Amino acid sequence: MADKLTEFLTNLATNDQLVESFKSDKVGTMKSFGVPDDHIDLVVNKKYDEIQKILGTEYDIATNSIITAIKK
Question: Is the pTM of this model over 0.90?
């Protein structure tokens, strides 16, 4: 479900409450959002190339302290 990862990362770019939740419990926050376990693993382990492949060319990822997706 690439859609859930994309939706999560784009929301993470704009939703302060989601950011705070993610900072305190990355895995739990992604699970409650419906992100599949294999995609959670990619985020936790900072596998940016694989995440970018899932997001496609419509999105850029920002990898500051928290990974987010920004629609081009």
Answer: no
Q: pLDDT per residue over 4-38, tens digit each?
A: 999 999 999 899 999 999 999 999 999 999 999 99
Secondary structure of residue 70 in the 3-state scheme: strand
Question: Diameter of the chain by CA atoms?
Answer: 30
Q: Which two tokens stand for residue 24?
A: 């305190």
Please, what's the b/e burial string for 24-59 (b: 16 or more CB within 10 A of its CB; e: otherwise)? eeeeebbeebebeeebbebbeeeeeeebeebbeeeb
Please enumerate, as own/partner, the contacts of 25-32 that have beta carbons within 8 Å and a separation of 24 or more. none
